[in-house]
Structures are given as structure tokens and as C-alpha cells.
Amino acid sequence: MNEQKILETQLILGKQVLEIVFDLLKNDSKTGVVLPLNINGRDFTITVEKEVQDDSKI
């Protein structure tokens, strides 16, 4: 895999994770997302979770 393809893959993954983070921030009912991936025939998952603060204890 050449450097250009590695950079393209990093940018695509970064964009997808950033979109997930923004979606989690604007949607209070969501607490996490699992992003399944297949890169070069290998399966991966990226899990993004947010911590939910219990305001009743403040």
C-alpha cells in the first residue's frame, strides 16, 4: 500500500469518526456508535461512546 492510499484511508476514517462524534453531541438519546470496517480483507470495528453525566447527583 503506498503512502497516498494510506493518507486517503486515514482521511476517510477520520471524517467518519468526526461525523459520529458530532451526531452523538447533538443527539442526547444516543450513547454510542459502532462503525464496522473491512480494510484489506480484515474486519475491524471502531466504537465511539459518550459518557452520560447524571445531573441529579450534582
Tell me what the structure shows.
- With 58 residues, this protein is α+β, with helices and mostly antiparallel strands.
- It contains 1 helix and 2 strands.
- Strands 1-2 form a two-stranded antiparallel sheet.
- The radius of gyration is 15 Å and the shape is elongated.
- The chain starts with a helix and ends in a 9-residue tail after the last strand.
Features:
about 60 residues, alpha+beta
List the helices and strands and how they pair.
Elements: H1 3-26, E1 32-39, E2 42-49
Antiparallel strand pairs: 1-2
Beta-strand proportion? 25-35%
Average pLDDT confidence is 88
Number of helix segments? 1
Query: Portion of residues in helices?
Result: 40-55%
Strand order of the largest sheet: 1-2
How would you sum up this structure in a few lines?
Helix content is 41%, strand content 28%. It is α+β, with helices and mostly antiparallel strands.
